[in-house]
Design brief:
Elements (H helix, E strand, L loop, with lengths): L2 H10 L1 E7 L6 E8 H25 L12 H35 L26 H14 L28 E4 L10 E4 L5 E3 L4 E9 L3 E8 L3 E11 L6 E2 L4 E5 L12 E7 L2 E3 L8
Antiparallel strand pairs: 1-2, 3-4, 4-11, 5-10, 6-7, 6-9, 7-8, 8-10, 8-11, 11-12
């Protein structure tokens, strides 16, 4: 027989593997394989082991034992950090937009997002503004009356009789921990109350500002009649948005300890402003 045919026939030779009882010499189990079949069997077993190991690692907690793979706690912290980072980025964008709009309003520009709707049927360029004699007389009379008015400037407007008829609803009930003091530029009153207590609007009005600052945390401001503005700072959360109408006693925020400055614990910093000047809240409200 040629040498090549002898090599080929070796792959077709059959081999018997058997298990024999040592006492009875009885053949218990046997298997007959060729070299080719044995190679295929070993390959199949190896592939099955690789597939089984990959499946166990992919779909079970065994993957956490791999060095460098994050565990459940680490992945949860990574997810929460991503959520907080996204929220912080949104707050920074809102703050930048607020200051940009405020700067444009002060310089006489148009805030971002506002659309001026004009009547296309009218020619606004042809409008002329002329002062009437009655308007000139009124202006001269007001200027003459206010020339020697000693109440202008830094004096407090708390003597205005119109405020005496107003009934201020207490924003919270608690203990006053910080009083109004113009010398230290503390323009409000600090009230300590139970944690996460509801903060109420002191009068009917419209929310003109809701936001977050690094110094005073979550802040909400409400515009009332008679040029009165109430300010609530260091809140844990806000329940109203800018433009919402509120009634006296309506819940508008939650007492907290937000802000990195001017706070040493959960409390409400409350301010009342009248025509651009601060008032002492304790002279109008019993906390």
């Amino acid at each position: 027989m040629p040498k090549d045919e002898k090599k080929k026939s070796n792959w077709r030779d059959k081999y018997r593997f058997s298990i024999i009882n040592d006492h009875t010499l009885e053949e218990v189990w046997k298997i007959i394989l060729t070299r080719y079949n044995a190679f295929l069997l070993v390959t199949f077993i190896l592939l099955f082991l690789v597939w089984g190991t990959s499946t166990l690692i992919s779909f079970t907690n065994l993957r956490e034992f791999i060095p460098g793979y994050p565990d459940v706690t680490m992945r949860r912290n990574i997810l929460m950090s991503a959520i907080r980072l996204d929220s912080l980025d949104r707050e920074l964008k809102l703050r930048d937009k607020y200051f940009d709009n405020l700067n444009k309003i002060i310089t006489g520009g148009q805030p971002v997002g506002m659309k001026l709707l004009q009547d296309s049927t009218k020619n606004y360029k042809a409008i002329s503004f002329n002062t009437s004699p009655k308007d000139s007389i009124l202006r001269a009379r007001v200027e003459n009356e206010e020339r020697y008015n000693l109440t202008l400037g830094t004096s407090s407007p708390e003597t205005v009789s119109g405020l005496a008829t107003l009934h201020f609803f207490p924003p919270v009930k608690g203990i006053v921990s910080g009083r109004y003091d113009l010398r230290t530029k503390h323009f409000g009153t600090d009230i300590v109350t139970k944690p996460r207590a509801l903060v109420s609007a002191v009068l009917d009005g419209t929310v003109i500002f809701t936001g977050w600052t690094m110094e005073t945390g979550f802040v909400i401001e409400v515009q009332h009649q008679n040029n009165i503005v109430s300010v609530y700072k260091h809140n844990a959360g806000l329940l109203k948005e800018t433009g919402d109408l509120v009634r006296a006693g309506d819940a508008i925020s939650i007492v907290g300890d937000s802000g990195e400055m001017y706070t040493s614990g959960p409390h409400l910093h409350f301010e009342v402003w009248y025509k651009g000047s601060p008032l002492d809240p304790e002279k109008h409200i019993i906390f």
